[in-house]
Amino acid sequence: MTTINDIAKMAGVSRSTVSRFLNKNGYVSEEAAKRIQDVIHDTGYMPSQSAQSLRTKKSGVIGVILPKISTETASRVVSGINQFLQKNHYQVLLADTSLNHEKEIEFIRLLQSRNVDGIILLGTHISTELMRAIQESRVPIVVIGQDMPETTSVIYPDYLATVEMIEYMLERKYRQIAYIGVGEEDPAIGIERKRAYVDTLKKYHLTVREQWIQLGDFSIESGYQAMRRLMETSSSRPDAVFVVTDRMAIGAIQYLKDHQYRIPENVAIGATGASTLSKYLEPSLTTIDFQNEEAGTLAAQLMMKALEGEDEVEKKVIHSYRLLKRDSV
Amino acid sequence: MTTINDIAKMAGVSRSTVSRFLNKNGYVSEEAAKRIQDVIHDTGYMPSQSAQSLRTKKSGVIGVILPKISTETASRVVSGINQFLQKNHYQVLLADTSLNHEKEIEFIRLLQSRNVDGIILLGTHISTELMRAIQESRVPIVVIGQDMPETTSVIYPDYLATVEMIEYMLERKYRQIAYIGVGEEDPAIGIERKRAYVDTLKKYHLTVREQWIQLGDFSIESGYQAMRRLMETSSSRPDAVFVVTDRMAIGAIQYLKDHQYRIPENVAIGATGASTLSKYLEPSLTTIDFQNEEAGTLAAQLMMKALEGEDEVEKKVIHSYRLLKRDSV
DNA sequence: CTGAAAGCGCTTACAG
DNA sequence: CTGAAAGCGCTTACAG
After folding, report:
1. In principle, which of A207, A299, B310, B321 could form an S-S bond with B305, CB 3.0–4.6 Å?
2. Pick among A3, A62, A75 to test the B interface (most B CBs inside 10 A)
3. What is the DSSP string of A209-254?
4. Predicted pLDDT at B233
5. In the prediction, which pLDDT does A236 show?
6. Nucleotides of strand C under 7 angstroms from a protein beta carbon
């Protein structure tokens, strides 16, 4: 393998000079530069990142911790992160927890031993251990999707968007609005969205019924079951349901179709996620678009700022959203 | 940051001993081991990968080059790769070309300078420059999805699966079978699948009509347009269409729905990809499942073998597939 | 069973 | 404008 020493020898200079040339710092005479340039071109030399990294403590790599890469949301976010990072000559090192919370902490440590320059975490929960691991990190950490205290985070407007969805349903004359959510382990989705649902009903003086709040576990099947409970065990049936993810909404819709309910005539469905799927379902799904790819880009941008040592990196950035009004509400 | 020197000092041994302990090679007395163990535990010490990598020329990182991470196929493959790799304590470094062919070659070089131990490439085309870059690589490369000469590859059974799909259509009594494909830049999809389509028609003595072969560019819209050409400009209309990707099939279906054709009564649709979407479309899509996640796992497995220096790493592995018979055919 | 020494490929003051 | 030297944190023969 060609090293800086080979280049130096072939160009007839010292390796300090080659290094200066490479990093464009310090002086290098034009003739020397020319010779070095040529040799590098001929050999296809590329400096060893490990050596550079050992020396400079910078690797040009950002670790990304996520619950599951084969998920539309996650892969979109990573795409956004990656686009921005690549422009800045950084690369992404993947760390997939397979939805295992404890692995997040493990990875925060592991990634540091791999000398990443920073870590972007797609948040799924909040715990004191996780917060501690983040505080103890010697590289900057940006969290996406959870409002982690004391941490630079890109937050989705869960509350606002949900309010708008519920108000849109009210505007469309639905009054019996039910809710399919998830547990509180995921505060952004489990707590914020539910709070928005409850608050909005109250604001318009509608009763909040416990049986109209059903929880699932993000799976399609759990959406199906939640809808079943809503339709079979409630004393009175809802005429609209807000579902906190597109996937669970698919399950819910499946239940309705299996039982000959028409959407939105009998039951309207509003969802969250703006998956590709949502557009091609029948009826097409009214859903909240959190623009995950842009959120990823934004997080990468904050990361770059942090790495450039900017002090005024905002701690909290609320990302935008759009309500995609389609045919299911 | 704690280094091996700190650990050595705190445990009262030399750093050689700590290193031996860490790598479980060479002798370390029980007492020494115990003291080292404790110190490591207390400090949370993790060896610097850059230093290890510089010294041993191994990084524990595999580069994955792909056309677009936010694609269902790619993210599934990466998920499979990652699962297997993580078990073996390797991690994935992402390289997304944004569909830019030239970047594949660039990344093969860049990843090597980052000292990856191997590269897995989700293939999208074949060119002599690319093949040269692969030959010149000093780390093992495994290609997924294209039959790259001289290269360890995991290949999808494009030909076989397409034959089965066409035969299934024939079995279902369709005789006017058209084809929506892509250009030949992607040999696996553009050449193999088309060849299978043509061969099968011939085998059953059916005429192959040029107007019934329409090409798109992987986009939903191009599927729409291809179907339009099939239905509007052909002298006689097909009663079934095989589409080489689910995405283009969605476009094709959209066209049919927009023009009040019924699926499969007027036109049957067979696709490829087994996207999540395909199951929830109406009608649900009959499609070929290439089991991308497993293909990824398989590629990772071959990579591990290559890294362990096994000589008998198979050069070509044809992966399996399933035909998902649903309602669109 | 253990430690001193060399070296992996770089960068960075420093002296000239 | 340029080069010699030190050092980043490891591992690996080698000598004891």
Report:
1. B310
2. A75
3. -GGGEEEE-SSHHHHHHHHHHHHHT-SS--SEEEESSHHHHHHHHH
4. 83
5. 86
6. 1-5, 7-14
Residues A180-206 have pLDDT tens digits of 999 999 999 999 999 999 999 999 999
Candidates A59, A79, A109; nearest CB to B70: A79
Among B82, B96, B276, beta carbon nearest to A69:
B82
Mean pLDDT computed over B48-55: 92
Residue A71 with chain B: CB contacts under 8 Å: 75
Tokens 């969250």, located at residue: A272
pLDDT per residue as tens digits for the range B261-288 = 999 999 999 999 999 999 999 999 999 9
Tokens of A187: 């505060």
* Candidates B115, B254, B281; nearest CB to A49: B115
What gap in Å lies between CA A263 and CA A272, rounded to an integer? 17
Give me the residues of B, 75-114, that contact A with CB < 8 A.
75-76, 78-79, 82-83, 86, 91-96, 98, 109-110, 112-114
Alpha helices of chain A — where are they, by DSSP H?
A: 4-11, 15-23, 30-43, 49-56, 72-87, 101-113, 128-136, 158-171, 193-203, 220-232, 246-258, 276-280, 292-307
Question: Nearest-CA distance from A43 to chain B in Å?
Answer: 12
User: CA of B208, closest CA in chain A: separation in Å?
Assistant: 32
Interface test with A, best of B132, B256, B280, B294 (most A CBs within 10 A): B280
A120 neighbors A131 (Cβ within 8 angstroms): no
Tokens of B125: 């085309």
